[in-house]
Amino acid sequence: MADPARPIIQIRNVSKRFGRVTAVDDVSLDINAGEFFVLLGPSGCGKTTLLRMIAGFELPSEGQILIDGQDMAGIPPNRRPVNMVFQSYAVFPHMRVADNVAYGLKIAGVKGGEARDRVAEALDLVKLGGFESRMPDQMSGGQRQRVALARSLVMRPKVLLLDEPLSALDAKLRAQMQFELSELQEKVGITFVTVTHDQDEALSMACRIAVINKGDVAQLATPSDLYEYPANRFVADFVGSVNIFEGKLSLDEPDRAAIDCTGLGKVYLNHGVTGPHGANVWVALRPEKIYLHVPGVGKAVKAAGEDAPEGHNFARGTIKGMRYLGDITLFDIELETGARIRVSRPNLSRRDQEDFTWGDKVSMHWRADSPVVLLG
Amino acid sequence: MTGQDWKTNRRVFAAVSLPTLFWIILFFLLPMAIVWLYSFGENRGLTDIEISGTLDNYKRATEWLYLTIFGKSFAVAALVTLICLIVGFPVAMAITFANEKWRPWLLLGIMLPFWTNLLIRTYALMMLLGTQGFANKGLGALWEGTSWLKVLAGLQPLPTWEPVPLLFNNFAVVFGLVYVHLPFMVLPLYAALDRLDRSLIEASLDLGAGHFRTIMRIVVPLAAPGIVAGVMITLIPALGAYLTPDLMGGTDSQMIANVIERQFKKANDWPFGAALSFLLIYAMFILIALQSMRRKVPEAH
């Protein structure tokens, strides 16, 4: 679908300052035609400002934005080939659904039968066929959002911008809309650029994600790369849940490395890190990458009596907290050093949650390629 | 907010509302009732009025002469309201979209005239509009200047400056009433526009509409409650305007309030004055009833 050779939006060294506050700080990134692009970040990180600059509601203090190769400087929002779905949906409350959707068409000079057909087609696309003569106040939040989507899609924009599109919906509806938005994007083939602070939303919908922190791109990657190979502590911590331990690089060869971590002890890796020897690094370990079991019951007992498979890292601790979430159980474990580590364990059978309880001594092990070493 | 309605807490409610209620009854409803009774009365001597239940006062009040004055008062008030709306809407929009730092000051600027007595403000306007007023002096200076330039260029000078009659006519009444009532229009409009979800305006721009179309298709319809409120709050006092037509009007610009005043003072015909007053009040009741009957505009969510 996505054509990597053709960027539809090019953001070049764009900065935006409000008074003394820098909202967006020298951002450069390309968004490819046909992809589902997500700007992910905590509130106040500048992601919405970036989106509003693409739409033309804010002007960059510095830098250049190109849409389909054309410089957008001096082009007002009503003449840009993009349309926006607003966080509040901004459905016109005094117009019927059909008039809302036809609003932009009428301005564009599309009349009569063609306008009617396109409105009907757009409403069908968002599964709102038959709602033409409803007033917005007779609709639910989810339906109003579909109206906003149809109203933008009917314009056949080159890029559809979505500002926190799912934030106002309840959890069930949000999960459903994540699917529907991805499906819709594939069906219409329009480039979607979405702003969100919700990592689940970003991971499940995006082709590529730009994580924004303090007005700057912290990492730009596919969802799985972002999760499995975070570039820095901010991304590791913001996307998903993670244990981070500070340590010193004590061994760094092409096929193995070791880090002395305060709290976690020596952590072995089966690949090189190529960092400066003795440098301060951070080891990031996802809770679900850690295997948990009762001491001495591990199937392979090697490495001087340790109950872990060969080549795995190993640690021991005591369960201090448990949170049963149905599909998984989260454990808060105190290591022998006194440091805490979070472990998640899938409940593969119905009684799995009964395997452990508060105060249990446990063993943990994880593969040598599971930890991510972060230099910053 | 449960348990705070008047049914569960009668005594608290009474303590809060009784003084106001008492005030309204004693100083508003009671005098109104007396005037209402007078409107069915007859003069008996210089100060005696007999409430005889006659309808003669109303019959006289609906004579052609008075109906034309009523009609004219309506026309003037409607014109004033329209001008206030046309002038006030852009002002209210400007305040709404002004920088947040400036907004309180702009609102203060709108309300500032209220700090001065209406009489003084009216006299100030008269100083501006009189034959020897600043407006005429300014125009005169411009005229003289143009004349002088023409002479300089070797052309015929303009004829001598004749002051424009800006005061003591219908123009002055409308001008004065607009000046007095503009804040009444701007404030409810501002309240309505301030509540408007900005993203609706952005959505309209985003869909390709220009600013003018956005204002006409989105802002004005959604500000309709504010427009109606502004119109009512301007039209009703303008309809009963007394001071401005009295001081700034000419012989032909009297409005209904001036006629009523004359009945109570110079003509000493209280029953007839009372009947005219109540005709005006009935007219306003009808206006308010019409307003509450209009179709409700859905509010933005």
Topology:
The complex is a heterodimer of chains A (376) and B (301).
Chain A: E1 3-18, E2 21-33, E3 36-40, H1 47-55, E4 62-67, E5 70-71, E6 82-85, H2 97-108, H3 112-125, H4 141-153, E7 159-163, H5 171-188, E8 191-196, H6 199-205, E9 208-213, E10 216-221, H7 223-228, H8 233-238, E11 243-253, E12 256-261, E13 265-269, E14 280-285, E15 291-293, E16 313-324, E17 328-335, E18 340-346, E19 361-366, E20 372-374
Parallel strand pairs in A: 3-8, 3-9, 6-7, 7-8
Antiparallel strand pairs in A: 1-2, 1-4, 4-5, 9-10, 11-12, 11-14, 12-13, 14-20, 15-19, 16-17, 16-19, 17-18
Helix pairs in contact in A: 2-3, 2-4, 3-4
Chain B: H1 10-38, E1 41-44, E2 48-51, H2 56-61, H3 64-96, H4 103-111, H5 118-129, H6 134-152, H7 170-195, H8 198-206, H9 211-222, H10 224-239, H11 243-248, H12 256-264, H13 270-293
Structure explained in plain terms:
The complex is a heterodimer of chains A (376) and B (301). Helices cover 23% and strands 36% of the residues of chain A. Chain A is of the alpha+beta class and 376 residues long. Chain A folds into two domains: 7-236, Rossmann fold, CATH 3.40.50; 242-375, Beta Barrel (OB fold (Dihydrolipoamide Acetyltransferase, E2P)), CATH 2.40.50.100. Chain A has a six-stranded mixed β-sheet with strand order 6-7-8-3-9-10, with helices on both faces. In chain A, strands 13-12-11-14-20 form a five-stranded antiparallel β-sheet. A five-stranded antiparallel β-sheet of chain A has the order 15-19-16-17-18, with no helix packed on it. In chain A, β4 and β5 form a beta hairpin. The longest helix of chain A is centred in the middle third of the chain and has 18 residues, at 171-188. The relative contact order of chain A is 0.11. Chain B is flat, with a radius of gyration of 25 Å. Chain B has helices at residues 10-38, 56-61, 64-96, 103-111, 118-129, 134-152, 170-195, 198-206, 211-222, 224-239, 243-248, 256-264, 270-293, and strands at 41-44, 48-51. Chain B starts with 9 loop residues before the first helix and ends in an 8-residue tail after the last helix. By secondary structure, chain B is mostly helical. Chain B has a two-stranded antiparallel sheet with strand order 1-2. Classes of the chains: A alpha+beta (376), B mainly alpha (301). Chain A binds chain B through residues 55, 57, 76-79, 82-84, 86-88, 90, 92-94, 103-104, 107-108, 135-137, 144, 148, 151-152, 155, and chain B through 197, 199-200, 202-210, 213, 217-218, 221-222, 297-301. Chain A: Belongs to the ABC transporter superfamily. Spermidine/putrescine importer (TC 3.A.1.11.1) family.
